[in-house]
Amino acid sequence: MSPASSKKVLWITALALLALVLFLDQYSKYWIDKKLPIREFELVVGDMMHKIPRYVETDQSIKAFGVPGKPGENGIVIIPNLFSIVHVVNKGAAWGIFHGKLNFLTAISALAFIGMLVFFNRICEGYMERVIGLGLLMGGTLGNLVDRMNLIARDSGIHGVVDFISFRTIISIRFFEEPFDLEYPSFNIADAGICVGVFLLCFSMFLRPEKNGKHSPMAVAIQKKWCKWRGREFKEMPDETA
Questions:
Q1: Model pTM?
Q2: What would the pLDDT profile of 35-48 be if each residue is shown by its tens digit?
């Protein structure tokens, strides 16, 4: 395969993953926005911001956001006391950091997406795992960027990233009077794509950092331990350029 054809395959693979993540992310957010009332959002009253942990139907909230949901609903329980589908609007980044700084986050996301496109060949050439990782990362970045730029109008009328995957459990421990309410911050398919993409990129850069095909010391060490655990003789891995 010629270098030009090889690059074309890499781009097609990455763009296909980007499109898949973007479609699944936006369709799931569209469905959540249509079917579930918002569980959590921010209500600004005067100069004060109040967090509403459960949807409360008031004239003020409806006037501010136009939210027509039913009070008291808390999403769809998939696995009791563990996994639910909810409707949360996140005005920050992952885990709610940089809350309320949508313009800043929009600019950062846009610059990151452009940077990934510009440096795609330099990062991914010769590394299919990086192509997959960067495709997922670009799809996730673009999915949340669409929300932050408010390119698709939501029925809720609230400007922010829609999160809906929720892991939450309540456990009781002896000697403690109150149970512990453990909840991982809600996330979406775009966030999942970003996390998997970053993991694949880091994994590749640690194990195969050089583009000349030489294996990293970490990769050799892992291979030695794997062979020892399997009771096999270790053979030096040939360079990929050999």
A1: 0.71
A2: 887 765 544 444 44
